[in-house]
Amino acid sequence: MKKITILGHDLNVSFSMAAEIEYEDLSGKPFDLQQMDTQKATMQLCYAALKVSNDKVPFTFDQLNRKAKFSETAELKAAVIEAMNEWLGIPAVMAEEAQAQPAGEEEKND
User: Fold this and answer.
1) Tell me, what's the pLDDT at 37?
2) SS3 5
3) Is there a domain that residue 9 lies in?
4) What is the pTM of this model?
5) Helix, strand or coil for residue 12?
6) Which of 59, 65, 77, 91 has its CA 20 to 30 A from that of 97?
7) Is residue 78 part of a domain?
């Protein structure tokens, strides 16, 4: 779990199925990484991750979008992506794939 500061508050950032469900509650749409193609969807996912990672988030989704500095939202997005990758096991999968591929051989895309 990572700690970041947003709007003067130190908050935890993690990712789990609870964040996916919270995103569905916020957005009214099913969680689908393929559909994270708007800033609104991305920020809804980030806010969902904040909500499930902390006992209380001291600002609303609207306040986050209107009052947070660019650097704060950029740090939040990066933290959520990192937490999501860890939860989905992406670094482990990439390491396994790299070990399975013989040295010097590149994957061929025909």
Assistant:
1) 85
2) strand
3) yes
4) 0.80
5) strand
6) 77
7) yes
Whether 31 is in a domain gets the answer yes
Structural domain contains residue 106: no
Give the contacts of 102 (CB within 8 A, at least 6 positions apart).
none
Residue of 2, 42, 49, 40 whose CA lies nearest to 21: 49
104 Rama sector, left if φ>0, alpha if ψ -120 to 50, beta otherwise: left
Q: How far apart are CA 88 and CA 26, in angstroms?
A: 21
Assess contact for 81 and 45: CB atoms under 8 A.
Answer: no
**Structural domain count of the chain:** 1
Number of residues that this document lists for the chain: 110
Residue whose token pair is 């860890």: 86
| Structure-token pair, residue 73 | 């939202």
In Å, the largest CA–CA distance within the chain is: 51
Instruction: Answer left, alpha or beta for residue 103, where phi above 0 means left and psi between -120 and 50 means alpha.
Output: beta
- Per-residue pLDDT of 12-27, as tens digits, reads 999 999 999 999 999 9
